[in-house]
Amino acid sequence: MRALPLDQSVAMIPDGASLMIGGFMGVGTPERVVDEIVRQNKRDLTVIANDTAAPGKGIGKLVAAKLVRKAIVSHIGLNPETQRQMMAGEMEVELVPQGTLIERIRAGGHGLGGILTQTGIGTPVETGKQRIEAGGKAYLLELALRADFALVQAFLADYLGNLSYALTARNFNPVIAMAADTVIASADNIVPVGVMSPDHVVTPAPVVDYLIAN
Questions:
Q1: Contact 161, 198 (CB under 8 A)
Q2: CA distances from 196 to 26, 122, 162, 169, 186 (A)
Q3: pLDDT single digits (tens) 80-133
Q4: What's the CA gap between 202 and 163, in Å, rounded?
Q5: Using CA atoms, how far apart are residues 192 and 33, in angstroms rounded to an integer?
C-alpha cells in the first residue's frame, strides 16, 4: 500500500475506466475522490454502484458533469438527471436487482464466474440470459462483475492501509474492495499501526493499493 495525495490518486484513472464506487444514496461514498474526478474531467466512465445518488451528492456529481458513459446500478437513486440522460440516450443504464448486483460483485472478488439466482425469472430481467436447471429448479446465470478501480470510503485507516467502516457507510465498500484491479481508499481518520484492534479491521491492508493522504 502507498499513500498518495488526492490529485495523484485520481490521475491514475484513465478516461474510459470502469469504477466501482461505495455508497448507498451517497452514504459511504468517497466524496473527495468524486470531486477530484470531476475536477480532472475523467470521461466515458463505467460506474458500478448501488445507485446514482442525487443531484450534487456522490455519484450524482459525475452524472451532472456528464462523465458517466454507463451505470450498472440497482436503481438510479433520487436523481432526475440520470433519468433525463437515460431517456435521451446520453447514458446507458443497466438496472440489476440489488441482491443480484452485490452478489455478482462478490463473485468477481472471489474468483467465481458468476452466480445462480431465481430472481428475475419470467420478467424482462431474464432477457438474453442463460437459464440453468439445478436440483429441479430453474435459475438465471448472472455473470461476475469486476472493475478497473474500486473507490472506497472508510471511517478509519492505519498507516498500513487496514480499513474499518462506520455503521451503514460500510454497505458496498468492503465488497467492492475485493473486486477491482486497483483499490483507492479514502478515510476520515488515519491512525498509527496498533491503534486499530484486529477485530475491527474489515478490509485488510493487502487488499488496498493506495490510501489517500489527508
A1: no
A2: 26, 48, 8, 18, 16
A3: 999 999 999 999 999 999 999 999 999 999 999 999 999 999 998 898 999 999
A4: 6
A5: 23
39 to each of 63, 64, 75, 136, how far by Cα in Å? 13, 13, 26, 53
Contact 105, 74 (CB under 8 A): no
Can you give the pTM of this predicted structure?
Answer: 0.95
The DSSP annotation for the chain comes to: -EEE-HHHHHHTPPTT-EEEE--BTTBT--HHHHHHHHHHT--SEEEESS---BTTBTHHHHHHTT-EEEEEES---S-HHHHHHHHTTSSEEEE--HHHHHHHHHHHHTT-SEEEE-TTTTSGGGTT--EEEETTEEEEEEE---EEEEEEEEEEEETT--EE--GGGGTTHHHHTTSEEEEEEEEEEEE-TTSS-GGG-SB-GGG-SEEE--
* Residue that has been written with the C-alpha cell 495525495 in this structure: 5
How would you classify the pairing of strands 18-21 and 45-48?
Answer: parallel
Cα distance between residue 172 and residue 210, in whole Å: 18
Residue ranges of the chain with per-residue pLDDT less than 50: none
Q: Which residues pair with 115 in a beta bridge?
A: 142
Find cell 442463460 and name the residue: 130
